[in-house]
Amino acid sequence: MDTELTLSETFLKMGISLGVGLLVGMQRERAESRVAGIRTFPLITMLGTVLSLLALRFGGWVIAAGLLSVVALIIVGNIGRVQNGPEAPGVTTEAAMLLMYGVGAYLVPGQELVAVVVAGTVAVLLYLKPQMHAFVRKMGDTDFKAIMQFVLITLVILPILPNQGYGPYNVLNPYKIWLMVVLIVGIRLAGYVAYKFLGARTGSLLSGVLGGLISSTATTVSYARQAREAPESISMAVLVIMVASTVVFVRVLVIIGIVAAPLFLVLVGPLGAMLGAMVLISGSAWLLTRKEQVTVPEQENPSELKPALIFAVVFALVQVGVSLAKDYFGTEGLYAVAFMSGLADMDAITLSTLQMAKEKQLDAGMAWRMILVASMANLVFKGASVAVLGNRRLFVRIAVPFGIALIAGCLILWFWPLQ
């Protein structure tokens, strides 16, 4: 910023500086920090803002000198603690002081919203110390491995992939394909983390939600086997499978909002109607078993590299398949690809369809129909899995709600306008 601020702009930035400093200082005061508290933090933040204002006229060396001064204050303030206390002091408060000085300095040339968000994040991180420490202590080797593998998938592999099209119809873009892998693995990892840290026993409704976030197909298989070994759990298995299948449509709407936000209003109507039908069906099952509890079967790590590679291959094949079907077979071919792709997993066909619709290679009305057909195929596959892996009673119990859901899907396909 090469011009001086007006008087009102200056007071606004100083006021924000005071406010965010007080916010973080209040948290440190409650934590009984011996280094800085409710008065020191706003002073440091406002010091950064004042020196940043001075830098507009005298240059950036003023901010650097102020930073050195804050560091010197921290060192002097800690000398007594080190000499008088037997334990080594932490540096959390000191790091917060330096960051808040930077926030204050940033306020002048930067955006107020960014400064407020950073300060709020600092306050939340400081406040959640016990919960964050407990989270890390509770994390096992498998859980840490899952997070590190997600880091590998996201921060190591993704940036090095070329962002250009290859292959038939120029639809095979390695960067975009792997970006979809990151999105799906991230959603599943969130469900996996929630499953790991909400306890081995949880309510049936939450079990279905977590199962839907991780994998509704895997959840169906797990509970079908569990019901075969323990017939008394059939009612619970029906509820969990239905809730997991319902959450699939929530995931689809979230993916649409992330991947194809401009098309959300077009796609949310019919897919939201299907979600509503699934909610009603699952709600009926929940009313019958709401007081029961269920043990969540062990879930696999969703960020393993091998499943991620398999998903990338499936996603690429679906993209090529949709393009070929559209070119050679027309609408009927698209429906066939959607049905076949949706049998075991909806994510690949959903993402591929959204990408093509976003790039105007596919009509938005056809896009939601393909996604809906894929979801119906997924229900058929899960019903077949229950028939093979579960027992007859479970299959009869799950066939009724699945059948109602399929009828609802057919009605939406038949009566909902294409556009």
Structural account:
This protein is mainly alpha-helical and about 425 residues long. The chain has 2 domains: about 5-135, no CATH class; about 140-415, no CATH class. Helix content is about 80%, strand content about 0%. The chain has helices spanning about 5-30, 40-60, 60-85, 90-105, 110-125, 130-140, 140-160, 175-195, 205-215, 215-230, 235-260, 265-290, 305-330, 330-340, 345-360, 365-390, 390-415, and strands at about 200-205, 295. A two-stranded antiparallel sheet has the order 1-2. α2 packs parallel to α4 and α12 runs parallel beside α16 (about 365-390).
Summarize the structure in short.
The chain is mainly alpha-helical and 419 residues long. It is built from 17 helices and two strands.
C-alpha-based Rg, rounded: 27 Å
Number of helices: 17
Given as residue ranges, the uncertain stretches (5+ residues, pLDDT < 50) are: none
What is the straight-line distance between the termini? Answer: 49 Å
Per DSSP, what share of the residues sits in E-state strands of 2 or more residues? Answer: under 5%
> Could you say how many structural domains there are in total?
2
Give a quick account of the main beta sheet: strands, pairing sense, barrel closure: 2 strands, antiparallel
Question: Could you estimate the helical fraction of the residues in percent?
Answer: over 70%
Describe the strand arrangement of the main beta sheet, using strand numbers. 1-2
What would the average pLDDT be, to the nearest integer? Answer: 77
SSE order, as H and E? HHHHHHHHEHHHHEHHHHH
What structural class do helix, strand and pairing data support? mainly alpha
The count of β-strands is 2
